[in-house]
Design goal:
Helix 1 packs parallel to helix 2 and helix 3 packs across helix 4. The radius of gyration is 21 Å and the shape is globular. 31% of the residues lie in helices and 21% in strands. Among the domains are: 96 residues, Rossmann fold (3-Layer(aba) Sandwich); 79 residues, 2-Layer Sandwich (Dna Ligase, domain 1); 92 residues. The mean pLDDT is 95. It is α+β, with helices and mostly antiparallel strands.
């Protein structure tokens, strides 16, 4: 049986989903750079031929560690689904002579390089400036038009995003973003290969989206993502995922598959995603491209990742379009023939719809909850009425245990302050959107109030 080395780190699709699909196609050897979720540890031991957790000292040269482990197990393919390990795995594959994202992988990771590449190709995106120091940021505020968004160049999940509305806010934004990046690194949400990546930032103008020019009903966010795969340098779009509006500054609340765009609009979005991916020059990897939607058909590129979409995007695609992207990617990296989509799947081709909701302590209007609540999925499941036929579940490995206090939402920390991740299956995308709106409205009402510290139970 063919052997695969799977490099696990924070982020990406649920590890349990990845392991079950990869193990069905190959013998899996797991290199765990992050602790395995408790709910997955048992299945990992059962599904994997080996599970290696390297000591901190071994991670000093991550590429060498991956190469050494791949050779030790005789791996014929090496892959990761984590944003934070993409570059290291791509470089290891280059050294091993195996199929991978390729030498251009950093262009799909470092937002400064990504934007510069798209600028060279004349692709639509916000005006930007790379930022390495506070002085750089102040200089950028003089050249760009407010409001601005400060981003960590190597972050994910909207971590360390800060909106700057005037010059006098720049210093505080700089300090807070750097502080959040340091906190994220302690939690394991940080680039694993590139030294000093926490110090790299980009600041850009905030473009104005307008979802109502693209969707026929209210409630949708003003951006979509194009999920796809690059196989031997050729981009294959798979489908589009829609969103609910983000929580300030730009924290994602929910992703819905498929996005309910009209056919002509979907074709235009996919065409821009193709240009964006092609410009980056990737070789063999999943892709996840986010595009902002504006008035009069305008679009702007937000970012592209050289890996499949995170959270529940991959399981949603499998449920709705019956495409096992994990298994297909494993097959391709092993040199087996794969029937990749030639065109993005449309809502008309979907079997129902699915969505994932990030539970944040923020109501539907974007305001923080008035008091602390305790996460309790059985209470949510029993207390929030959903549409007929809709099914709600919790992603255990991505959620706090029942009885945990829901963290206060921190705009700068983004998804780091999430309490849980829920999956909803429904008849169509509209139903997913409406059920999610009902859930968001109901959560601060149905979840138990947290007891004051020191109070008797």
């Amino acid at each position: 049986m063919s052997k695969v080395l799977l490099v696990h780190a924070k982020g990406g699709p649920p590890l349990g989903h990845i392991l079950s699909r990869a193990a069905a196609r190959s013998q899996v050897h797991l290199l765990a750079l992050s602790a395995l979720p408790p709910s997955v540890a048992g299945s990992a031991a059962r599904l994997c031929a080996s599970v290696e957790t390297p000591a901190d000292a071994e991670r000093a040269n991550l590429v060498s560690l991956i190469v050494s482990r791949a050779r030790a197990v005789g791996a014929e393919a090496v892959l990761t689904f984590s944003e934070y390990a993409v570059v290291a795995v791509a470089e290891a594959c280059e050294e091993l002579g195996l199929a991978g994202a390729g030498s251009a992988s950093a262009l799909a990771r470092d937002k400064r390089l990504m934007r510069r590449t798209w600028q060279e190709h004349g692709l639509p995106q916000p005006e930007f400036r790379p930022v390495a120091t506070e002085a750089d940021l102040h200089a950028a505020t003089e050249a760009l038009t407010f409001p601005l968004l400060l981003k960590a160049a190597w972050s994910a999940g909207s971590t360390a995003h800060q909106i700057i509305r005037s010059p006098h806010e720049a210093s505080d934004a700089w300090s807070r973003s750097r502080e959040v990046m340091a906190e994220s690194a302690q939690l394991g949400y940080a680039e694993l290969h590139v030294a000093e990546a926490q110090a790299d930032f980009v600041v850009e103008e905030i473009v104005t989206g307008l979802a109502t020019d693209w969707f026929d009903e209210p409630g949708w966010g003003d951006y979509v993502s194009v999920e796809g795969v690059v196989a031997d340098g050729v981009f294959h779009p798979v489908c589009l995922s829609g969103r609910m509006p983000t929580v300030e500054p730009f924290t994602e609340r929910a992703g819905i598959t498929p996005a309910l765009l009209p056919p002509e609009a979907q074709e235009r979005v996919v065409a821009l995603a193709r240009e964006a991916v092609d410009a980056l020059g990737l070789s063999n990897c999943g892709t996840h491209t986010e595009i902002k939607l504006g008035a009069d058909g305008r679009m702007w590129l937000i970012e592209t990742a050289a890996r499949l979409g995170g959270a529940m995007t991959v399981p949603q695609i499998e449920e709705v379009f019956h495409l096992d992207l994990v298994g297909m990617l494993v097959d391709h990296l092993l040199g087996r023939p794969v029937d990749w989509p030639q065109q993005a799947r449309t809502p008309a081709q979907a079997s129902g719809a699915a969505g994932s909701l990030v539970v944040l302590a923020v109501d539907g209007s974007g305001e923080a909850w008035q008091d602390l609540r305790v996460w309790d999925f059985p209470v949510v499941s029993a207390g929030v009425p959903l549409s007929r036929g809709s099914e709600l579940s919790v992603v255990t490995e991505s959620s706090l245990a029942d009885g945990s206090v829901v963290p206060v939402y921190d705009p700068a920390a983004g998804a780091n302050t999430m309490a849980a991740l829920c999956l909803l299956s429904a008849a169509d995308p509209r139903t997913v959107l409406r059920d999610f709106e009902a859930l968001v409205d109901a959560l601060p009402r149905v979840l138990p109030a947290a007891l004051p510290e020191g109070a008797a139970i």
